[in-house]
Amino acid sequence: MRLTIDRQFRILLIGLAVTCLLGFSFKQHCMPGGWTDSEQYITGCYSDAVPFWTAREVDKGRIPYLQTPIEYPVLTGAAIWIEGAATHLFFGARANDAKFLGVVTAVNIALAFLVLWMLWRAGVDRKRLWWWAAAPPLVLYVGHNWDMIAVTLAVAALLQARENRLVRAAAAAGLGVAAKLFPIVILPLIGLSALFERSKDWVQRLRRAALVTLAAIAAWAAVNLPIALLAPRNWSEFYLFSQSRSGTAAGTWDVLGNLGWLPLSIEDKNLYATLAFAIGAVAIVALGWQRHRDRLWLLATPVLAWFMLTNKVYSPQFDLWLWPLLVMTAPRLLPVALFALAGIAAYFAEFWYFAGMDGVWPAASTIDIAWAAAARGAVMLWIIVDCLRREPPEWVGRWPVRE
Description:
By secondary structure, the protein is mainly alpha-helical. It is built from 19 helices and no strands. The model has no long low-confidence stretch (mean pLDDT 95).
């Protein structure tokens, strides 16, 4: 039996390796001569790593926050600096944006394999493991930027919560927030799990909820506090940038504005996005409470989907945030497949829109983006309803985890 399991896992590793190789090639194929004639938009090979090489002075070895501002949270900024240093170390005088992109992608690939191992060890069904090993979002985004760091920590947090290791789960989610904001939606669910644990009295519940809160704050502060003290202005760049940016073309509020249905100022978008998310998240938890009270971590999937829909920014790579959670918790896989297809359509609609702005073909319009975003949004609403009305996959209640 052990040999059979090992062989299955080796096949999964090979499948994931092929997927990641496709993702590596997808971003690298137009790098040998640098981006020309808007090919980064036409072919979709754009990656944030390429402009960061010079725009954030990675090529000069500058330390994020201390020597150069950067619009990412501190853990991601640290990863960018380390990957830049590794690029200089490995390639010396030949270090350039293409080499940096290769290093960034290699780290993300390693994290993708770590996610597969965590899901395997947790006992996720082999069929679902293939949805990670052959994930279309990995092809699109494994070389896109640094979101795999927070994705990995979010998966770790949910798997720890599944095992009722809530303090560890909160610490992992807190570190995730230090890399990207979205794992913050997991933390209230972990806190509620501690506060309403049936097997403990109220004193024990309150004590554990306090420990969970402290673990999350301590993990986040351990990464952020030194930089916040040494370079407060540059440390706050991520938060100021997030508040002041107008949005993205595939975000719900921009889609509504571009159609002329609900044009909003940046301040109004901030307000409406916050209110819509808060009201919807409370409703999701309330509606899912009876079915999932003893496993509230499952509600992270519909809450995150709602966060992505109501946020004023919906960058293409945000699909990667949700994908592993869908692999883990989606009751049915048909809407997951449709989410992937709609995500691909939205990806190319957005980049072909940028191509059109450069006066090249293929070109897309805001109407094209609206159609793709609407299709993706409809599927995400379907997923939210499914997660609330249907039982989760069988592996969720299966014990013990694989060793």
